[in-house]
């Protein structure tokens, strides 16, 4: 399958061109719009966006360093399957960071912020009725809000990158995300923050983030071609 990728309206207009192309392609891969095996033609993307092939090549290099693609020819790159090792690394790094985030919040969150968290959960319940794909956008907002209110908002670019590794599984394996389960787990985290229970919030966060690994053996059995190593 050969795919040409149009610019995304969600990418900031003030970013360097190479960064825009990288983020657009990364988003497409994470959302399984570019499934494993898709052939990316660099010259086609360059022509569509009125960019140099060197700029697109730089973006593809960034993707290859992240284990998302491999160069197969001078003008081509192929999307790689999901790396189990990279997925496990992403879950580990998210756990280490986000457990500390919720611990801080359980010790310091004020009433206004707790009300904001309750509102986020309510919105998730409303959006969750539409299906899991819409819910993942609010999932990102939830985790980003926690980081920002804990004073660790500058971590978000890394947290987002690790989160996208997990999201790619959710978009690739149909039925792997149950909206009710995700919302229930988010609610559990919020409940423990409200109760000032730092250990409970940490445990709830670990359970929430490790869910994809608990299900991974089944995913590999049913979608063997989508995973590697």
From TrEMBL:
Ranges in a coiled coil: none
Keyword Transcription regulation tagged: yes
InterPro entries: GntR_C (IPR011711), TF_FadR/GntR_C (IPR008920), WH_DNA-bd_sf (IPR036390)
SUPFAM superfamilies in the cross-refs: GntR ligand-binding domain-like, Winged helix' DNA-binding domain
Matching SMART domains: FCD
Keyword Transcription regulation: yes
Domain GntR C-terminal, residue spans: 89-211
Protein name: GntR family transcriptional regulator
């Amino acid at each position: 399958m050969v795919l040409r990728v149009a610019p995304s309206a969600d990418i900031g207009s003030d970013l360097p061109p190479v960064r825009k192309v990288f983020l657009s392609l990364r988003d497409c891969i994470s959302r399984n719009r570019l499934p494993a095996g898709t052939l990316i033609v660099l010259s086609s993307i360059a022509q569509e966006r009125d960019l140099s092939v060197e700029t697109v090549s730089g973006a593809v290099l960034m993707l290859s360093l992240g284990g998302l693609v491999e160069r197969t020819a001078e003008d081509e790159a192929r999307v790689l399957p999901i790396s189990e090792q990279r997925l496990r690394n992403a879950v580990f790094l998210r756990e280490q960071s986000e457990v500390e985030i919720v611990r801080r919040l359980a010790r310091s969150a004020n009433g206004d912020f707790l009300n904001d968290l309750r509102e986020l959960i309510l919105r998730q319940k409303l959006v969750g009725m539409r299906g899991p794909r819409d819910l993942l956008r609010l999932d990102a907002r939830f985790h980003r809000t926690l980081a920002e209110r804990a004073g660790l908002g500058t971590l978000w670019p890394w947290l987002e990158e690790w989160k996208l590794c997990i999201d790619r599984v959710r978009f690739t394996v149909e039925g792997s995300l149950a909206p009710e389960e995700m919302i229930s787990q988010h609610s559990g985290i919020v409940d423990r923050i409200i109760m000032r229970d730092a250990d409970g919030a940490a445990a709830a966060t670990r359970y929430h983030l490790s869910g994809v690994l608990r299900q991974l053996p089944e995913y590999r059995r049913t979608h063997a071609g989508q995973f590697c190593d």
